[in-house]
Amino acid sequence: MPKKPSPAGFKKFPLPPQQAKTFPLPAIIFFLGSIFLFRLAFGLATEIWFIDQQQIYLLGLKFFTTGQWPYFGPDVAANIQLPGALQGLVVGLPLFLLPIPEAPYIFLAILSFSSLSLLAWYISKRLPQFPPWIIWTWVLTAPWVMNWSTNIDNDSYALTGGILFFIGFIETIPALRRNLVPSTLANLMMGFGLLWTAQFHMSYVILFPFLIFSAFQQIKTAGPPFLKSLFFFTLGALASGIFIIPTLLKHGLSQGLGGSGNAIAFNPENFGSFFTILARFLCLASCEVPRFIGANSSERWAYLDENLKVAPFVVTAAILGFLQILTLFLSAFRLRHPQKDWAAVKLLTFLTFLLIYISFLFAIKTPAAHTYYITLPIVMIYAFYVFSPWTSNKKFLTAVKILLICNIVFHLGLAIHNLPVKSLYKDRGTFVKAIGEKNYHLLGERRPNTLY
Question: What angle do CA 319, 322, 326 make, to 5 degrees?
């Protein structure tokens, strides 16, 4: 009899020994609980006194102390403030439930952990031969994940919308979907993710080409049932977009958009940023260490000199991270792959990068990596596809273990280093006083000319 084809396109793909292991529920709970607490502790040690983070905290603190509805969210540039109440609510509402400075961090930790767990689950289902403990550990603790999804900054909240949107998008594209999410739920996730992200970061505009392509594919393949998909997309959009409606009702369409149209302008200076954007895009899924220990070489060497005990782990993580980025780049030229949808995943990743690059030709800002942070799910999925053929290689698994250990130690050392100089514990008393006296001015002032 002829051999049956292996499922999901895994041709001649040996199952690694780790896959045969099953972990008891208490072990899984302990594993995930430990990562959650580690992420929360790290978040509490992150920067809060820099003006961007302080302004985001002030949005929620103003809502808590004054009771004024936060009609507008982050002020992303001069005279540009995003419409919608979500940013003020996600920071301010936790203070009503638990009036301590740490409350917004706890809520963010729950929110980001939940959405990142969804991403880890989704990748694990797409690549069942990949040891799940590696996927979950990396998705929850990679440097760009740790340093942004735990920090009180608008990008941190936008990631949740990006994860929901892109999982929904992928599951509506015939060449990519694995039927892990029902079509109705996929469209609901896209709608919710779109208008969720729109209230946190201007990068939401790059989601529209994906949305248009998804609609085209669904109309092409589904026909009349597309109306059902449209209904669920609208339902999802209303669930998060409802927080924009009060802003538009009170301020009208012109003022209610918060001047966001001013963020679009032809910027030829970004034309030469092709490889810079590409490298930073791939860094989102890699162990990029230098970015988080200093703004330049002198600051990074100073950090290593001040933290000699963790320096070997930091350097090792940085070297392995560079090799990750190089591998992700070179793998783009790989034609054969055990996964039948490798070409589609690779094309999606490249087109996402290309879209980011083109968008910066019409953006007023320079291409900093955090400005396209919402695309992290795409490059993270691509990264696991790149490394999936090596999961049965003992040397590869050893290198992965070294990377994960060095990455954890790196973040532990970074948290200890930042705690007394950058975190809220540098002057927690000011936060406590502002909350207790319900006077957000004690912590700081909103930027001039802000709408809220």
Answer: 140
- Rounded to whole angstroms, how far apart are CA atoms 418 and 426? 9
| Other CB atoms within 10 Å distance of the CB of residue 261 | 10
Contact by Cβ (8 Å): 159, 371: no
DSSP state, residue 264: B
User: DSSP secondary-structure letter at 84?
Assistant: S
Q: Is the dihedral of CA 93, 98, 100, 101 positive or negative?
A: negative
Q: What distance in Å separates the CA atoms of residue 114 and residue 93, rounded to the nearest whole number?
A: 18
Token pair for residue 30?
Answer: 């302990």
Angle at 136 between CA 188 and CA 111, to 5 degrees: 45
d(CA 383, CA 326): 11
Tens-digit pLDDT string for the chain (452 aa): 444 444 444 344 444 444 446 778 888 899 999 999 999 999 999 999 999 999 999 999 999 999 999 999 999 876 789 999 999 999 999 999 999 999 999 999 999 999 999 999 999 999 999 999 999 999 999 999 999 999 999 999 999 999 999 999 999 999 999 999 999 999 999 999 999 999 999 999 999 999 999 999 999 887 668 889 999 999 999 999 999 999 999 999 888 887 776 667 778 888 889 999 999 999 999 999 999 999 899 999 999 999 999 999 999 999 999 999 999 999 999 999 999 999 999 999 999 999 999 998 888 778 888 889 999 999 999 999 999 999 999 999 999 999 999 999 999 999 999 999 999 999 999 999 999 999 999 999 999 888 89
And the tokens for 21?
């292991």
Q: Where are the alpha helices (DSSP H) in 265-341?
A: 274-283, 290-293, 297-306, 311-330
Q: What is the pTM of this model?
A: 0.92
Query: Residue 72 pairs with which residues in a beta bridge?
Result: 83
**Residue extents of the structural domains in the chain:** 46-437
